[in-house]
Amino acid sequence: MIAHDGRKVLNLQRLTAAAILACASTLAPVPGWATLPDPQKATVAPLVRAVTPGVVNIATRVVETVDNPLLQDPQFRQLFGIPDEAVRRETHAAGSGVIVDAERGYVLTNNHVIEKAAAIEVTTKDNRRFPADLIGRDPDTDIAVLRIKSDHLTPVPLGDSDRLEVGDFVLAIGNPFGLGQTVTSGIVSALGRTGLGIEGYEDFIQTDASINPGNSGGALVTLDGRLIGINTAILSRTGGNVGIGFAVPINMVRRVMDQIIAHGEVRRGRIGVAIQDLTPDLAEALGSRSGQGAVIGSIEPGSPAARAGLVKGDVVTAVDGIAIKSAVQLRNAIGLTPVGQEVELTHERKGSRATTRVRIEPGERTAAGRMGRP
């Protein structure tokens, strides 16, 4: 079962802080962590002091209508003297967020943290409280962008999640159980996790850094103090934590955030293809020399892909120079590219490699409101 509130139970391998610092010593620190501590002291406190002011607590107030036909009947309420307020139910919840633009006051969090919220309040580490405006949200990636108005905010600088490797040390920072800001450590356990059924567009960083209820929307940072993921969910059969947590990679988040800031939503596009993973059998049948990629199974007549000269059986191996390992990764790359922009597809056809530029066109929304195939 996937717990959709960013939870995880501590399950570290007793990694020493000295080993963490040895890894960190090879990285360029961000401002505020100019000097690495003495490894003999076994601490990452200077890094924590530099980053944690950029991680905030988020409190929401949700007003819901009670799903009871009798209570929704005004004559029934009047007959039995039931006040109108009984029809509404107010709940409160807590989560986490990350300041990414101090000048404009932009804060990243999860969509499920603020979904249906009637009011959102952001509390900084120094206990300043601000009402937050919702700039926009994207359920398909579970990302939302808030804005607060304040001076003297501290942003967390963005990293490059494409450079992550399994085994990299990371810190998770958030507001578990509403207790206040908490920092935990771990490693990147896996990359590119998909098929979990959490969101429509999945490319998760898997980590064993301990995250718990309330950590949703919080920061996953590298030991050079850069944000490389937004903590989102855990894998659990009981609702308890089993040491497998997931974060949305910051490179995906950045593309979503840019569109939300520009349009208030993510405008996903398409090129008009149906795709599937490249399997060894398909590679042999198609004469492909690539061991991974996305196979074009069909092309819609008159679509951008058809106009660009792509054909059924082409194996897409890269988008704008970034290697494509699966059909899901190609779908993500196309779906998160702004409409009207061109992408360069590297593809194989009967063993020969070529590149083709394709323009992204608006996609048609499904009945659920999500975009269809790429």
TrEMBL record:
Substrate binds at residues 112, 142, 214-216. The active site is at 112 (charge relay system), 142 (charge relay system), 216 (charge relay system). One of its GO terms (biological process) is proteolysis. Pfam families: PDZ_2 (PF13180), Trypsin_2 (PF13365). NCBIfam families: degP_htrA_DO. Belongs to the peptidase S1C family. This is Peptidase.
